[in-house]
Amino acid sequence: MDSLAGTQSFYEQADDSRRKRTRLIVAVVLIVLALAAAYYAFSGGKGAAADAGGQQAAVPNVTVVVPGRVSVEAAIAANGTIAARREMPVGVAGEGGQVERVLVEPGQWVGAGQTLAVIDRSVQSQQAASLAAQIRVAQADASLAQAELERAEALVSRGFISKADMDRKRATRDAANARVRVAQAQYAEATARNARLNIIAPAAGLVLTRQVEPGQIVGAGSGVLFRMARGGEMEMLAQMAEADLARVRVGTRATVTPVGTDVQIAGQVWQVSPVVDMNTRQGTVRIAIPYSSVLRPGGFADARLIAGTAEAPLLPESAVQSGPEGNYVLIVGKDDKIERKPVKVGTVSDAGVSISSGLAGNERVVTLAGAFLNVGDKVKPVMQKSSQ
């Protein structure tokens, strides 16, 4: 009996031990589950907050301006070539000959009538000397005929000379005087012809080109030997679109900048083409400009013409961007999203850039950080004072 009771007591103690271990395991599992639930709840809330903060941080602030419309100078941009306003081609005026000396170089200033090149005149000089001697011969004959006439007139009253002889002597005297005048005219002609042998400047101006060298044989068919700009006056032949051509008048102020330089030369329109090229739809505006050492006839230049004033939006330079398709600006449109607007730039000054077309003036234009924005991006616009 004692052994049976001992065995029963042993099994009861074992059951109690198993129940305690089971309760301990269940308690540990519940604690672990509770800790896991708390961890996931904490990390999930923190992630949601981070997502919300990230979405809020993804909407950047951008500075915008509403430009309105202000009075600005209406400028027209054009380009073209530099040329002499009045170009003078100089060639052989006389009979020509062999060139002895060339006295000028391109780029030199010359006066009216100044000799540009000397032509050999050795033969012509001898011909002129011969004609001068013929004048003296004719004058001697005329003097002799006059003396004979005077002696005959002294004898006619005595009856020694008939009236017919007197008429012949007068005719001889008159013929001798006529031969003197003929010889003088021939000599003057030769002198004038020799004077035209040299190549001279028809007017004061600037020598542009030289196409003759010593030893060269020149004549009437030699063509242009020198080109000159009369008075050194220059002009720009600006090519302009048909629409812009209608806005330009004689007297319109212009600023010409030769390509490759930063020199700005003030000029004035002196002629507007009355016709438009049918192929290019462009016309030529001739801008008179004073001489400058940076001007090269045939060279390229840009021009900016001031054709009055106009009302236009005015933006900071940082607001206008350029791409393969031209100039454009970014505006904040509906729902504060970025939109792209192509524009045409007008006058550029210290005050800013005027927009000749593309904007009405009431748009919210991005002034800064436009290069970092894309079309469709949502932004938070921050207004600044207008550029007016």
Q: How would you sum up this structure, described in words?
A:
A hairpin with a 5-residue loop joins β18 (326-332) and β19 (338-342). 33% of the residues lie in helices and 34% in strands. α2 (122-156) runs antiparallel to α3. The strands form six sheets. The protein has a six-stranded antiparallel β-barrel. Strands 3-10-8-5 form a four-stranded antiparallel β-sheet, with no helix packed on it. The chain is α+β, with helices and mostly antiparallel strands and 388 residues long. It is rod-shaped. The chain contains four helices and 23 strands. The protein has helices at residues 2-57, 122-156, 163-195, 242-245, and strands at 61-65, 70-84, 87-90, 97-102, 109-110, 115-119, 199-200, 205-210, 217-218, 226-230, 234-241, 253-258, 265-272, 282-289, 300-312, 314-315, 321-323, 326-332, 338-342, 344-349, 352-357, 365-366, 380-383.
Topology:
Blueprint: H1 2-57, E1 61-65, E2 70-84, E3 87-90, E4 97-102, E5 109-110, E6 115-119, H2 122-156, H3 163-195, E7 199-200, E8 205-210, E9 217-218, E10 226-230, E11 234-241, H4 242-245, E12 253-258, E13 265-272, E14 282-289, E15 300-312, E16 314-315, E17 321-323, E18 326-332, E19 338-342, E20 344-349, E21 352-357, E22 365-366, E23 380-383
Parallel strand pairs: 1-23
Antiparallel strand pairs: 1-22, 2-11, 2-15, 3-10, 4-6, 4-9, 5-8, 6-7, 8-10, 11-14, 12-13, 12-15, 13-14, 16-21, 17-18, 18-19, 20-21
Helix pairs in contact: 2-3
